[in-house]
Amino acid sequence: MRLLEVLRTAEDVETHLVVSDWAGKNIECETEYDLDSVKSLADAVYDVRDMGAAISSGSFLVNGMIIAPCSVKTLSSVANAYNDNLLTRAADIQLKDRRKLVLLFRETPLNRTHLRLMLDVTDAGGVVMPPVPSMYHAPKTVDDIVNHTVQRALDQFGIEKGLFTRWRGLPAHGA
Questions:
Q1: pTM of the predicted model, to two decimals?
Q2: Beta bridge partners of 19
C-alpha cells in the first residue's frame, strides 16, 4: 500500500494494480486498509482472472513491475512461467521482454526450493528482493522500515522519493 501511496506523488508514473485473491484477504487481515481503498490508490485496476487485460501483452509498454508482497506460490509461478492468472502472466511479460521485474518475497525462513526458485527468477532477469530491514539509517518506527523497502524497490526503476537517509560511509577516524 505504501508503494502505491508513494507512486501517486511521482510525476509521469502510471500505476496498474492486480490483487490476487489471497492478497485481498491479507490486506484485510494484516493492515488497516480495506481492498477498495487500496484499489483507489492505483490508476488502473485489473481482476486477477482477466487474462485479456492490457498488461497481459508485451505490446502494452510499461517500465516494469513490482510484486509486493510476493508469496511462494507467485514466486513459483513466475519462475516456472506458469501463467495461470494475470499477475503471473504480466510478470512473465516483463521477463520475456527484458523489462524490470522486482519480487518482494515475503516468506521466511527459506528452504532449498525457495532458493532455487529465486535463482531461476534471477537467471531469467528478475530481481528478488526480500524486504529485509537495514539498520544503518536507524529506523524508529515500522513506517521507517517500510519506507526503506519501498525506496529500495523504487531504486530499481531510478525513482528517488527520499524515503530514508542513504548510507554516506563510516565517519573518518583520526582525520
A1: 0.94
A2: 47
